[in-house]
Amino acid sequence: LATGPRQNNGIFYEIRTYDIKPSKMKEFVELVNKYFHLRTAHSELVGFWTVELGAMNKAVHVWKYDNFAHRAAVRKALANDKDWQGKFISPALTCIEKQHNEVAYLVPWCQLGKPSKEGGVYEWVTFQMKPGGPALWGESFQAAINAHINTGYTKLIGVFHTEYGLLNTVHVIWWNESPDHRAAGRHSAHEDARVVAAVRDSVRFLESQHNMLMIPVACSPLK
Predict the structure, then answer these.
(1) Is residue 174's pLDDT more than 80?
(2) Which domains, from first to last, does the chain contain?
(3) Which residues have CB under 8 Å from 199's CB, separation 6+?
(4) Cα–Cα dist 101/2, whole Å
(5) What is a single cellular component term in the Gene Ontology annotation (predicted)?
């Protein structure tokens, strides 16, 4: 009831969310920026962020894999990488309170985007949709996303639909020049009849929504 159309290839994205001990957040970010080149030597990092608003002491990172065999090979190599295990994993584990991961696919009508320039902030929006998958709510959801894109105030980075994890979940990543630019754009969007109509249609299938404002770490490919 939850799976649906996706890109016509085996590529998927692993979304990893870490809750960091409050007293260890600075140490954890320093470890990431110093040693994450050891991790990205094995597979492609899409982005790595810390959460500024909507949650506290949380880090989110997204990895791209060709297929599940690719991920299995990468995980095996990481387990045998003494530098990675010793320099990052061992000290990082003392900083982490909880880990969570999901497997998600890009929806078929979305390509992974990039911001128009470095800097700015990312908004991570998680929609929990009613059971039934994109066959039920896909068209209405796409229309709501496109209505926001057409306002021009925000840049779409990606729309991901979960395959493993909490099902019927959609994660949408947006980029904005600044929190204030985003706030002004949202205010205008709420007065746009096209956005209001699209959202009103889509919200019929929505159970909950959670927004986070995120800042990329220095080593994140998405800056």
Answers:
(1) yes
(2) 12-104 (3.30.70.100), 106-216 (3.30.70.100)
(3) 144, 147
(4) 18
(5) mitochondrion
Spell out where the chain has E strands: 12-20, 44-53, 58-65, 96-106, 121-129, 155-164, 169-176, 206-216
Instruction: Locate 219 and state its tokens.
Output: 């080593």
Distances from the Cα of 4 to the Cα of 66, 141, 202, angstroms? 19, 13, 17
State how far the Cα of 186 lies from the Cα of 39, in Å rounded to an integer: 37
Phi, psi of 205, deg, nearest 5: -105, 5
- Please give the structure tokens belonging to residue 109: 């009508």
Type and span of the H or E element at 202: helix 193-202
Helix, strand, or coil (residue 29): helix
Span 182-215, pLDDT tens digits: 999 999 888 899 999 999 999 999 999 999 999 9
pTM: 0.93
What tens digit of pLDDT does each residue of 22-54 get?
Answer: 999 999 999 999 999 999 999 999 999 999 999
Which residues fall within 8 angstroms of residue 107, CB to CB, at 6 or more apart? Answer: 5, 6, 134, 138, 142, 159, 160, 161, 170
Task: State how far the Cα of 57 lies from the Cα of 25, in Å rounded to an integer.
Answer: 6
